[in-house]
Amino acid sequence: MTLDRRAPTQWPIGVIVGVCIAILDVMTKALLGELALDVGPLRPLGPLAALVNAEEGGARGAVALLGLLAAAVLVLVALARVRRRLSAAALGLLLGGLLGKMLDLWDDGAATDIFQLGPDGGAPPMNLADLSLAAGALLLAVALLRRRRGRSLR
């Protein structure tokens, strides 16, 4: 009888991160979206951020929803196999961003953006789901590069 010495899968980390990000995305849109509606199209939050009330015109409808669902399923399949915490957290961020986008599209058929980053709101409008997708992709790239070099973050 042989013992399996491989590290256990880390999928719970990814699922917890993903669900928390999706919940926070919905909550920030509900809270900050109402605040942005009250003040007009742009409300500065200091030198590096501003509240906005914008809708993305890009991804709409059932096709976009199915594409996001397919991507979420792929992330879940990857999560089932991942054995490093950093990779699981990165995939969780991707999952949370995808779930946030799906909930937004399901709710009103368009993605609602609630803030801008950068001086004078120079960056495009975004929401927490957008930030989560970007952070997840960046963190996954770091995890893959660290794995390739033989170093792992646990």
Describe this structure in words.
There is one protein chain. This protein has 154 residues and is mainly α. The chain has one domain (11-146). Helices cover 62% and strands 10% of the residues. The protein contains four helices and three strands; from the N terminus they run H-E-E-H-H-E-H. It has helices at 11-39, 61-81, 85-108, 128-148, and strands spanning 42-44, 49-55, 112-117. The protein has a three-stranded antiparallel beta sheet. Strand 1 and strand 2 (49-55) form a beta hairpin. 34% of the residues are buried.
Considering the chains and any ligands shown, give keywords for the structure:
single chain, 154 residues, mainly alpha, 4 helices, 3 strands, globular
Could you give a quick summary of the protein structure above?
This protein has 154 residues and is mainly alpha-helical. The chain has helices at residues 11-39, 61-81, 85-108, 128-148; strands spanning 42-44, 49-55, 112-117. The protein has one domain (11-146).
Helix proportion of residues, in percent? 55-70%
Low-confidence stretches: none
- According to DSSP, the number of beta strands is 3
Number of helices: 4
Report the average pLDDT across residues: 81
Topology:
Elements: H1 11-39, E1 42-44, E2 49-55, H2 61-81, H3 85-108, E3 112-117, H4 128-148
Antiparallel strand pairs: 1-2, 2-3
